Here is the input.
Amino acid sequence: MEQLALASATIVIGIFGCVAWFWGSNWLLDRALPPRGANAGRNIGRAARVRPWLFLGPALLVLAVYLVWPVFLSIWLSLHDASGQRFVGLGNWRWLMADGKFRESMGNNLLWLLIVPAAATFFGLIAASLTDRLRWGNLAKSLIFMPMAISFIGASVIWKFIYDFRGEGQAQIGLLNAVVEGFGGAPQTWLTLTPWNNLMLMAVLIWIQTGFAMVILSAALRGIPEETVEAAVLDGASPLQIFLKIKVPQIWGTIAVVWTTITILVLKVFDIVLAMTNGQWGTQVLANLMFDWMFRGNDTGRASAVALVIMLLVTPIMIWNIRTARREGM
Amino acid sequence: MEGMAGTKSRLTWAVNLAALLLVVLWTIPTLGLLISSFRDRDQIAASGWWKAALPAEQNEIFRAPPPETAVPDGPLWVLDGNVFGEAGGSVAAFGLSAREPKAFAPGETATGRAGDTLTVAEDGAFRITYPEAPEAGRGDRIFVTTTTPPRLTLENYETVVVAQGLGRAFLNTFTVTIPATVIPILIAAFAAYALAWMRFPGRALILAGIVGLLVVPLQMTLIPLLRLHNAIGLDKGYLGIWLAHTAFGLPMAVYLLRNYIAGLPREIIESARVDGATDFEIFRRIVLPLSFPALASFAIFQFLWVWNDLLVATVFLGNAPDQLVMTGVLRELLGSLGGEWEILAASAFVSISMPLLVFFGLQRYLVRGLLAGSVKGG
Here is the structure.
């Protein structure tokens, strides 16, 4: 109860603080440079130059302190030793290049990058085109979209249950092993089965992200001009031909957006690996490696170097996004 | 013509079936966990959740009382009892050895090497007979296959909420989530308005910067921010995590809201300006109410993201019960009791219930936000 009271109080104070800043600073500005009286014209002009920064101020401050400055501090930290005291030059980077776990993580991240965005987009596209033709399409969409709302860690619990292993002869309670036994195979400890366990982890993210791809691609498919499809029907194209040769080429742009969005997510994937294998049995990825060095290794230098690698991998997409946004007149 | 109609209906069938397959594949994992969360530990271990509606079969070993307690009855010495004790249940099969635990059906009589016999009835009552007075020793082992009727229970939920501290964690999660959702919306809405409708030098640069910040990986910021929080005495606590979540949500918030607010009709805002309204009034009276759909979209996003977050909470909050959030509890449970599925399943369901409610209740806004945020940049 006490905590609830404290929580509500802090919520009110926090929100009130924000409102007070915007309202108060505007009020002060209007008092200092009143838009009436003798100097009204000059005051309005001056106030108009100041006011955008009052509106933008908190956002810029928070972004600068919490997102921009850390990038530079990370670069600095990556050139220093474990506690961030002593300058070690490129020592951490040399260690990184030689470290087996780092190589494994890079390899796995590459696998994730190749497989997850492709699979999620593929299934999303199929789900979108199937459900758009159904009377119960909206219900189907909701259900496929649902995993989006589930936390990565919750999803990990769900899937760990599916991969559960019991010795041969015991009743399998994991669905996958039950199916395998049903087909006469031998049950496996899926999560320790290098390299296939990587696929088992990827399945979780694919399961979560397919709904996202489906929603966006479904909107894009519905935006395709009817005439193009009708013309193809008149020319005698089969449904599959219409889909592959008429519809898909028209939504390449959206497919690219879905692909890059999932790609960024994949580079940051962390919870699933942490919860299901903690990087053991050859499943380490960069984000979890960074977490390991930060908390268990207590080495800010190496952890920062790994984080910077993730940043470097994201950068091409960042530049591409900025260029696209500017071209579209933002 | 008939042929074509036939193809068409076959195609419809195929589409329906394929979609059904996808839906089943995508819902079954969650369904499995949901059903498991209502079964007790023995049931979970005895059979897969898909058999929850069937009686569960279990192999058990019962040790009979020592032979010397047998009482003479006519020419024989007899030992009576019940494998279930007081509990009750039903026996599907029994046997004398571990190699053949299901050799006999209930009611049959099994004969051992020394001429002793064993009968187990369906209700668990057994009778062992010895042809002559047995020597003292350990009791005989009886292998029984029991079936327990299907049963669903809410006990797991009681256990996790009270004993595992999930109730407290639920509260903590709320404490993190609500301010971390509301504060970025407020800050971002003002910034978005300035970026959409005010003219000032550096605007394009700031916009480009925000699009760039959309993809900055969180991992990048954790160590510097932790050092910062320690340096300014914020340490691990709610204020720190609110600020962190606010910052991490801001680029998306500003981006989404700016796109929406920039799309509002120019005439409304121009005419308000002509009437002498200040920017603050325009924002409060016109822009804010009109932007409600975009605000709602972002609020849902941020809510789901903060509620489901593990990384930020692990880094910026402590491990004490008054700060541990639900994702953190789940992580600890996964680490410490890999085998106790009933606890894990119920805990996981408590933690995903809120996002699922929000998801099914406000799906329309969520979809709208996704489309606005992704179709352009992402």
Notes: Chain A touches chain B through 120 residues (CB under 8 Å). The first helix of chain A runs from residue 2 to 32. Residues 64 and 70 of chain A are 9 Å apart (CA to CA). Residues 2-78 of chain A form one domain.
